[in-house]
Amino acid sequence: MRHSRPFGPPAATIMELKAIWQFLFRRWWLILLPAIAAFILALSGLRGMISPAVSYTVQIRLTAATPPEAEGSTTASAPYEDSVYVPFLASEYLVVNLPAWITSDTFAEEVSTALRAQGHIISADNLRSAFAADSYRSVLVLYVTWDDESDIRLIADSAVKVLQTRSTSYLPQTPASLAVVPWDDVNVNQIAPPLMTRFAPLLRIAVGLAAGVALALLAEYLDGSIHSRRDVEALGMALLGEIPPER
């Protein structure tokens, strides 16, 4: 004769869930305390998560070289290596040094001065982090990042003018006939903040909650008090009676 299994979860599972509930009921304050502290610290970033700040970027490719004609060389009689290869090689050596100047303090000061001449005041300290650059052979790539669309156009234009007019002052090894030619117009693109930046407040709260659970588990492990009949039975002692708590 087959015996039908009773419906519902096993008794062991019910006891485990009851033990977890009792643990949470005893240590809820210790679990929530770090989470509340993390929430308070993350309040300033919650607004940025709901409505993140928008920033803008501009990417401009340029090339820089010293035209051979400017040095008085006769390209018609010069050998091929002198008339073609050497100018391109000199351009590569020149372009590879420009990114270091673009990210320097003096470049930010020059751009700030150029903006001030147009009646637009932005300090060099704020502009210093707005510029980045890279190079590949004779091609220079200028990156500009800013949080205002109208400002970034002026900043990018001023940066190109500084490269065209002030490069020889900070690269004294180059002749005065240095030519910097932009390949791109100032095209502004909107960029969103990284996901890690947007969800950083939630991650802090989650870390605080995890830390609270860890503290509660540690406190429970170090606690030698008897809270239930299971604690008495775990010690191998016989249970004579149990007084229910007052409701």
Shape: rod-shaped
The CATH class of the largest domain: Alpha Beta
- The second-level CATH architecture of the largest domain is 2-Layer Sandwich
Number of helices: 9
Number of strands: 5
Looking at the structure, the CATH topology of the largest domain is Alpha-Beta Plaits
Radius of gyration: 35 Å
Q: Can you tell me the number of structural domains? A: 2
Residue-averaged pLDDT = 82
- Our measurement of the CA-to-CA distance between the termini, rounded to an integer number of angstroms, reads 45 Å
Given the helix and strand composition, which structural class is it?
Answer: alpha+beta
- Helix residue percentage: 40-55%
Question: What low-confidence regions span 5 or more consecutive residues with pLDDT below 50?
Answer: 70-76
Major sheet details? 5 strands, antiparallel
Quaternary organization: single chain
Q: Output the helix-strand order.
A: HEHHHHEEHEEHHH
**Approximately what portion of the residues adopt beta-strand conformation?**
5-15%
Structure explained in plain terms:
This protein is about 55% helix and about 15% strand. α1 runs antiparallel to α8 and α4 crosses α6. β2 and β3 form a beta hairpin. It is rod-shaped, with a radius of gyration of 35 Å. The chain has about 250 residues and is an alpha+beta fold. About 5% of the residues have low confidence. Strands 1, 2, 3, 4 and 5 form a five-stranded antiparallel β-sheet that branches.
